[in-house]
Amino acid sequence: MHQAGGSLYSEDCTEVTVDSPEVVAGTEYWAARFSEQNVPTDQPDISGFAAGEYVFATGGSWNYDGLAVGFPELEGKWSSAPLPAGPANAGSFIGGNVMGVMAESDAPGTSAAFIDSVYSDEGVAAMLDTAAANNVLWLPPRTDKVAETHLDDANKGALTEIFETSVGPPNCSGWEPASPNVQLALQSIVLEGVPVEEALAAAKTEMEATLQ
């Protein structure tokens, strides 16, 4: 969707745009990967690399150490890269966890100070060291700290580019309750043969019902 220039909502979050021509084009391209190129509908197991079953897969940052720890025989035989760019935008997506202070907090100042400490230079260094000691790649939201992870230079470069060009979920109220049903609508295209425009219309209905 993003590669084709589409978005789930208008920029001010007042309108659902999941049925726009750009989203339709992006969704049709995505769906064709399953119907025309036999992309599996289940999540690939990274053991397939070691077995020679496939030559690439899309995934997340957890795959870095999953490959390094689980399949040491592949060391030096794989690398990562951003998803290819589409006609309008790059294609990678950023998720992750969020730290915040609830409005009802009895100590908002202390809570905010704790978050500041976690993402300070010292806090990030401690988190990176602890993660690396446990064979886990922790990516801080501070993109300037990617260079301090335990990855090699090629993978650090890929992550830096991803951070610079990727997008995250929409920051619109109503998206969280609607998103499971939007995912079901998209799955119906691939698993049940529902036409793209029909599925996106169903997704739009779900999104408009929670739009605030």
Strand-helix topology:
Elements: H1 21-36, H2 47-51, H3 62-70, H4 108-118, H5 121-133, H6 153-165, H7 175-192, H8 196-210
Helix pairs in contact: 7-8
Organism: Glycomyces endophyticus
Protein name: Extracellular solute-binding protein
Cα(first) to Cα(last) distance is 23 Å
Taken in chain order, the helices and strands follow as HHHHHHHH
Which shape, going by the Cα principal axes? globular
Query: Judging by the overall fold, what is the CATH architecture of the largest domain?
Result: 3-Layer(aba) Sandwich
Task: Give the fraction of residues assigned to helices.
Answer: 40-55%
Rg over alpha carbons: 20 Å
Structural class: mainly alpha
- Mean pLDDT across the residues is 91
CATH class of the largest domain: Alpha Beta
Helical segment count: 8
Low-confidence spans: pLDDT under 50, at least 5 residues?
none
Question: Main β-sheet, in a few words?
Answer: none
Q: How many β-strands, per DSSP?
A: 0
Our estimate of the beta-strand percent is under 5%
Number of domains: 2
The CATH topology of the largest domain: D-Maltodextrin-Binding Protein, domain 2
Give the CATH H-level superfamily of the largest domain.
Periplasmic binding protein-like II
Features:
212 residues, mainly alpha, D-Maltodextrin-Binding Protein, domain 2, 2 domains, 8 helices, 0% strand, Extracellular solute-binding protein, SBP
